[in-house]
Specification:
By secondary structure, the chain is mainly β. The protein is built from no helices and 16 strands.
């Protein structure tokens, strides 16, 4: 499988955005200290606000105290957000592959603005990448193709993922080790979320847990 073919990422999920307006005078918020929790979810409650989807191409739903994404189609991503809005964030999650091909995509999303977003992905055969989805196309940032890292636990395993979106700096950590960094100033604010996808072989089955968003 040609891993440069990242532009084939097509979204299989309808995301919802909400807007807020007020005529009250603007009040500047007090800056939060680094490490403050901005949002978190251990997925123990199916009422915590993540979308639930069951279609022929796969499943996104709460499952056994986690959030499960199963993708049953080729060359497809499923992704989901909790409908929040942040600028600079540090996102962390535990991602466990349950079944399916090791050649897959498992990752995090930041600064989704209704159409575009940054993605931080790894595969269960040990590859990784940082990229941007913009104008209906996906492109890797800072690397020409997905690269390998010994920090990634391969096969049926749990990996701890961390994505930092701070200013124009995008940094990806797996299991406590920094594996990639890129610069891009295209997107400044937006939603955060989870992603799982396939290459040539369908059936990737992933469960996410302990999702936390920190002030960087």
């Amino acid at each position: 499988m040609n891993r440069i073919k990242i532009s084939s990422l097509l979204l299989a999920f309808l995301s919802f955005a909400c807007a807020y307006s007020s005529s009250a005078p603007a009040v500047l918020p007090t800056p939060l200290p680094s490490g403050a929790v901005l949002f978190q979810d251990d997925f123990s409650s199916p009422a915590s606000g993540w979308n639930r989807l069951l279609v022929g191409e796969g499943v996104m739903d709460y499952d056994g105290g986690g959030y499960r994404i199963l993708v049953n189609a080729q060359e497809m991503n499923f992704w989901v957000t909790p409908r929040r809005d942040f600028a600079d964030v540090r996102i962390e999650v535990d991602a466990g592959k349950l079944a399916g091909p090791d050649e897959n995509r498992i990752g995090l999303v930041c600064r989704f603005n209704g159409n575009d977003y940054y993605f931080f992905i790894m595969s269960s055969d040990g590859f990784y990448g940082i990229g941007i989805f913009s104008g209906g196309q996906a492109a890797l940032l800072g690397q020409g193709e997905m690269l390998s890292s010994s920090s990634i636990h391969q096969g049926v395993a749990v990996n701890h993922l961390r994505a930092d979106c701070v200013g124009d700096q995008l940094t990806f950590y797996v299991n406590g080790f920094q594996i990639a960094q890129a610069q891009d100033a295209t997107l400044t604010t937006g939603d955060i979320g989870l992603l799982a996808g396939t290459f040539a072989t369908p059936g990737v089955d992933v469960v996410f847990d302990n999702f936390v968003v920190f002030q960087p």
